[in-house]
Structure formats: C-alpha cells, structure tokens
Amino acid sequence: MPGADADRGKQAILKVGCGACHTIPGVRWPRGKAAPALDGMSGRALIAGRVPNQPELLAMFIRNAPSLAPRTTMPEMPLTEQESRDIAAYLYEVGD
Amino acid sequence: MLEGWPPPIIDPAGPYAGPISTLTWALFAMAALVLVVVIAAMWVALFGKAQQKRRLGGTAVIWIGGIAFPVLVLTILLYFGLTLTRSLSYSIGGDEMRVRITGEMWWWRVAYLDDRRRPVIHDANELHIPVGKPVVLELESADVIHSFWVPRLSGKLDMIPGRLNMKVIQANEPGVFGGQCAEFCGGPHALMGFIVVAHPPEQFEKLMQARLSPRGATGARPAVAGAELFQSAGCAACHRIAGTNANGLAGPDLTHVGTRRTLGAGILPNNRGTMMGWIANSQAIKPGNRMPPYTMLSGEELTELAVYLEAQR
Lengths: 96, 313
Known about the structure:
heterodimer, A: about 100 residues, mainly alpha, 4 helices, globular, B: about 325 residues, alpha+beta, five-stranded mixed beta sheet, 12 strands, elongated
C-alpha cells in the first residue's frame, strides 16, 4: 500500500488493542478469540464475509467497520486514517 | 504500547523513587570497579611475568586487596546508602490524602478515604493523585501476598493478608506511571498491572469533585438497553455501579469505568472494541482470571453493554 508502513501498523495494533478480540500473526499477546483470526488476509476474497478485500476498503473497515457492514459487531476504532492504512499494510504483509 | 506500561524501572519521577535509583547506579558503578580490579588480578595471575605473579600472591596484596579494600568500599557504600535512603522514611502527619489499595487475584481494589479514613470513592486498577503532594497508601490483601510496585514513584511493598502496610508516594510531574504486581500471586500474576495518573492540583480537585457529586450530575446518562442487560446477564452479581442496583463486590467497581485508561487491570487500552472483547472472552486475554467468558451474548448485546459501560464516568 502506498504511503503505509507495516511497522507503524503493528504499533497501532498494540496501541488500540486489536488483540483483545483477534489473534493476529506476529502479535504474541493478547491473542483474543472473540472474533476471527487475522492470518492470511492478503489471500482472502472478502472482508468479514461481505466487503471486497481491497486495501482502501480494508483500511476503512479497520477504522469504521459499521460504515461498510452496518450489522457487524466490530465497533468504530479510535484510529486515524493513516493508522488504519498502516494496520492494513501490516495485515497484508505479515499475515501470510 | 499502553502509556506508562510496562514501567521503566530506573527512571524516577518522585522523591520516594529518586534515592533508590541513585543508589542502584552507585552500587552498579562500585561493582563494575571491583570487577575491573578482579579481572586485572586474574589477568596477571594467568599471563603476567613471574615477578608480578609472586607479588600478587604475597601477604601485602591479601591484606590490602582482601581485607582493607573491601572494608573501606563496603563501609563507604553503607554510609552512603543509609544517608541517601534516609529521605525515604516518612512520618505520616495525618492530613495527607489517603487511599486504600487492596491486592486481589489479579487486580487492585482502590478506595479513596476521607479524613476519618472512610472510603468515599471506589475505583479499581487506577490511582489518581495530585502532583507534588505526598499520598499515603494503605496496602492490604484480600487473598494471597501481592506486592505493590510503581517503579517510577516508589520501591516495592508487599500486601500481606491480615496486615495493613503503609507507603507514601509522590509524583513531581504530571504523567501516567505504570505499576505491576511484584510478588507471584498465581496464574495471571504477570498480567496484574496498575497505573498511577498524576494531575496538576486544580485538575485533580475537579476530578475528585466530579466523582464525589451524586451520580447523573456529571451529565452521563446510562444507555438503557445496556443497563437492563447489565442486570439480566449477571454482571451486577460481581460488579458495582454506584446509583444502580448493581452491588456486586467480587469484581472491580465499574462506577467510573468509562473514564478508566485501561481494562483487565492495567493491561489493555480502554475503548469500545477492547471492552467488547474482554466481556466476550476475557479468558483468551488473561487466562485464569475470575471473570467467565460471556459467549452467550450476541454482538448487539455486547455493543449495548459496552455503550452502557462507556457512559459510567
């Protein structure tokens, strides 16, 4: 992803605590089980089973999931647009 | 990472931590000096000329290096250490702010006391203090031995069942200071964190006044669906929210949980996502903690509960 940085993405993941719900490759703790594990994101066709898996859409979903999938349980997260793009980059690069 | 956690251990931010750090560095420097001398002597013993070796094995060296030098160094260090740490002893005057902190498996119960030592504000896992004033902590335990440790503000002190141990802390600057239980207390001991938040005095007064005022006066209105669920799903059996029917005392008080900076005892940031994840399955996050997973709740219900808890300020 242009202008996104996977290392910063990992810091953002730790800062907001994505691991409270998701088991994420490369994140040793926490390894939450409330929501799907986030490995292999680069190979998936759909995000949350309904949104096309494209980088900008994944970043948008990470920041504000209900705006793309109104009935999802995942809440809006306290992330900037840049942070959400960094996290998307991390999931694509590290997750497979 | 979480602000202030894990806590840096040699980075003092108050008068009850400063001397300990100074002493740590002094001991480290002295030990390094002694190590250099010992290694030099070993080098001579192994590779030195015969005459040097003979001198090294002589009586003079044993008297000087084996007796005089250690006696001198240890005496200096003892005097230095005792003088330095004298300022750590504090006689409680009686008009300091007092807080009772109770170690529980695996979190901290916090009660702010009034001038007659009655608890007036209940909270958990987080302590708010004014900058520049000594705060007296009454440390006790509800179950096993824990140890209270906020390295940037003070040394460790054990929390022992049946005893009340007193500790004074003070922060010289506003900030967030991480803490950690320092005595193994069972399963998730390593995930028993704590934070101290030091505020400028006016800001601190405002915060305490807001917490002392009757519930609702701060403008926070409960999310009604979540309020009912909090009762019917069983949360209220273990958690208390002042001004409601939730009176449980087994788990952390949630009266001000919406303002808390962390969840799960100082280990997760507090936002809607982490709150929902914690409620749904805290066992995946902090294995062995005493809150069961609530896997019977739907996504909508988790959201309602999180919205309700966010409003508890």
